[in-house]
Amino acid sequence: MQHFKRRDFIKAGSALSGAAVLSSMPVSDVFAAGSDVIKIALIGCGGRGTGATFDAFASGQNIKLVAMADAFQDNLEKTYQTIKEKFGDKVDVPDSRKYVGFDGYKAAIKDADVVLLTTPPGFRPIHFEEAVKAGKHVFMEKPVAVDIPGIRKVLAAAEEAKRKKLNVVVGLQRRYQTNYREAIKRIQDGAIGDVVSGQVYWNSGGVWVRPRKPEQTEMEYQMRNWFYFNWLCGDHIVEQHVHNIDIANWVKGRYPVSIQGTGSRAHRTGKDYGEIYDNFAIELTYDDGSVVYSQCRHFEGVSNRVDETFQATNGRAYLSAGNQAVLWDAKGNEIYRHDPKGNPNAYRQEHKELFAAIAKNEYAFDDTQHGAYSTLTGIIGRIACYTGKVIKWDEAMTSTVDLSPNVYAWDALPKIVPNEDGEYPYAIPGKNTELYI
Questions:
Q1: Where on the tree of life does the source sit, at the highest rank (predicted)?
Q2: pLDDT at residue 396 tops 80
Q3: Which residues of 117-142 are buried (b: 16+ CB within 10 A; e: fewer)?
């Protein structure tokens, strides 16, 4: 990875995300037969897919949902009914455009102008690749991959998306949240000097567990419980904590050169929790010698924390998704406090800006680089903790460890399967590291 100087990084990446038109030249023809209707396809019909569709409709543009795809029939039908009841004739998805199964995304993508990619993230690289190949604009949820081969696939597709002038927005919605935009602009303009350290957190009680049913194959069980298997979610340092890691990279204007840390299964240790850890603590070391400490955990019954703090040569900063942002100078005097009054919902704002650009036939969004590299930061952090090694960025980029199954089929086996007691193998630093790097 080439490490940009701060001003170059801002110019090449973060300032363009949700802000500036990349090219005044028209994008590829989006609307069929001169229609002003923007046709969307939803790929992945869970809670996030439902929310993303609601947010798309809230963008204020003339949007119609015309296709849906999911691996599971029940997921698709439940989401369809929810969206149909809310939006009525804005939903035109007959049974012939409801695609069920592992390959359904291919047909759904062909039916639309814009695709919403909201499946478990393990599928993101192949879905994004297909959408770009078909010439579609994309909203894709974070993270954008779960392993390094997946990152390389996403970056390759991103180059094709640029060539085709396809807008791509990644669901790191803090990039579209007013308090982050205003505060980080001030930080990058030098309001508190050079950032020399920071701390970013996602500490919570964890997420749902879906009990195994006797009739389920191993593939179905893992997909129903996708959060607990790395080929589907990447562990929570990647799936959730990527938000906070992305803020560290955004504030620093660069990506780390090496990562080291520790983690374990300390609290959520039973077979219901698959192979993932429940806590990580890593250090992100950047090429200027600065270090950002990153912590995430899933412990029930203890204090929670989801926010970011930074220390600089002339002051410090506090940021949070709760529309908070405060900057202090070196003497502790408050020099900026964000006013959250009237701030738009960040989830909706990212769709509002994306669909406004598409409606104007503008090429304005290329979120793929920061989405991919912040995802990669989380992946390297996971590898560092699983192996107990210091992982250098450039060396990690050569990894060939592909977590995805050899075959996508209900009777096929994922690469990680339980033993006779139903327990899944998990990483033990210093013992089975060859499985993870």
A1: Bacteria
A2: yes
A3: bbbbbbbbbbbbbbbbeebbbbbbbb
Count of Cβ atoms closer than 10 Å to residue 213 Cβ: 9
Tell me the C-alpha distance between 129 and 49, whole Å: 19
Stretch 379-386: mean pLDDT: 98
β-strands 63-70, 98-100: how paired? parallel
Q: Which residues contact 290 (CB under 8 A, 6 or more apart)?
A: 194, 195, 196, 197, 198, 252
Q: What is the pLDDT of residues 32-84, one digit of tens each?
A: 445 799 999 999 999 999 999 999 999 999 999 999 999 999 999 999 999 99
Mean local confidence (pLDDT), 297-315: 97
pTM higher than 0.90: yes
> What are the distances in angstroms from CA 189 to CA 6, 14, 243, 250, 326?
10, 14, 22, 13, 15
Residues 161 and 366 sit within 8 Å (Cβ to Cβ):
yes
Amino acid in the structure at residue 141: E
Angle between helices 346-359 and 47-57 (to 10 degrees): 50
Three-state SS for 417? coil
Structure tokens at 346: 């960040």
Distances (CA, A) of 218 to 23, 275, 411: 47, 14, 8
Which amino acid appears at position 44 of this protein?
G
Q: How far apart, in whole angstroms, are the C-alpha atoms of residue 147 and residue 399? A: 9
